[in-house]
Fold this sequence. Notes:
The protein has 489 residues and is mostly helical. The chain has helices at 24-43, 54-72, 77-90, 92-110, 113-124, 130-145, 148-165, 170-187, 192-201, 205-233, 243-252, 261-271, 276-294, 296-302, 306-315, 325-330, 340-358, 361-371, 376-393, 397-414, 419-431, 441-450, 454-457, 462-476, 484-488, and strands at 318-319, 332-333.
Amino acid sequence: MQNNTLNPKGPENENIVENKELSIWEALIPVVLLMVMLAYNIFYADGEWLGEYSNQFILLFGGFFAAIVGLFNKVNLKTMGQEILENLKSVFVPIMIMFLVGALAGTWLISGIIPAMVYYGLQALSPEIFLPASVIISAIISIATGSSWTTSATVGIALVGIGTALGIPTGMIAGAVLSGAYFGDKMSPLSDTTNLAPAMAGTDLFTHIRYMTITTVPTIIITLIVFIVLNLNIDMTGSTDVSGLLRTISNTFNITPYIFIVPAAVIVLILLKTKPLIALGTGVALAGGFAIFFQSGILESLSDSNVTAIFNAIFSDTAIVTDNEKLNELFSSGGMEGMLWTIYLICCAMVFGGIMDGIGALAKITKALLSVASSVFGLFASTVFSCLGLNAIASDQYLALVIPGKMFKKAYEDKGLAPENLSRTLEDSGTVTSVLIPWNTCGAYQSSVLGVGVGEYFIYAIFNWLSPFTTLLFAALNIKIKRLVDKKS
């Protein structure tokens, strides 16, 4: 999903720490404290309880409480430290990607790529079908690239800009983009999570993808229907006459189709399975060159030196002033510096998740859920809640697939269920819901890239929160639940 590289061993080989000394109640202490602190910060302190980095500090406090629980249960600090280090290693490449995404946003702004996307998009995307069209466009790009991260960082940014100019609430636009992006990511054979889930469950990739269509297709159809209804009833403040916006953009930037050579090159590199760092780095370098060639006036307005203007766009804030307030908000970027808040959040989440894994709390919580799975539906429900819980507790979608995958594999076999039941449930509840947790790596990334808070897009990310309900509904009604005996016949 993130198009990143985990630790050298591969995520499927990550060690899951068990601790017989630890009780389930002790394992839940850091989780409860973390949730209480986060809830207080979000609902009563407007996110500013401990200043700008409140969530980061709360995650570190949660890790501190987890460490105390671990020390009382004979887990030494070295063990916890090793797990923290492994977690931080696992997000090294994603962090580098985030820095490059910040640089990409800055250079794609000053080179005119994002303004050109908005310019042509305003002409091509009819307001009457904007939201469902956003879902479909994002889905196509995500299937082609295998990455929801790449989709949101390219076409997602453009769609938010176009929709904002039309007066559509940003939460709706982001929800449509993420619904399509995670559908495509989930169904793409190029996606790392789509490869990881069957590896954990013990089935093959294409069996897994075919079996996912049973729950995924109805979910995306419902999602599209909801967005069609929303689009029909939305009160757009931006009229269909966008001539004023188009004129402002064309007066500010040199708009030409040649600029799209840069995003096309990045997409081609991704399709050729080039490493994300190389693909995004190429996008930054090309955009810098195109800025000099096509947007010399913009560069002169930003700095006395073209090189300085490009470096500022890569590393720090850039704001291009127009005569339209909405466009001024869109045509600004924080560069790499703008990604630091999110990167700090991810690092703190990895510290908390590492300590929770190191003291054996993650394994204990998952086993407790498994113990109540006496029926087939109970097994599916336990898997779903394990994935949801680990997305919140461990703050990482890979752990939300790896740990339940390892823990529940034998239970599915014992119930006579084909492994694709497990792999599908892992994706329906682990992969797609990661973006709904503000402190999860996916939630933090998407919120930062799209410039829309998780709280704003949560309800509109329909495909993401509907998927777990769909998989539970199919399990409860025993619809297309494949048995091991079915595979032999």
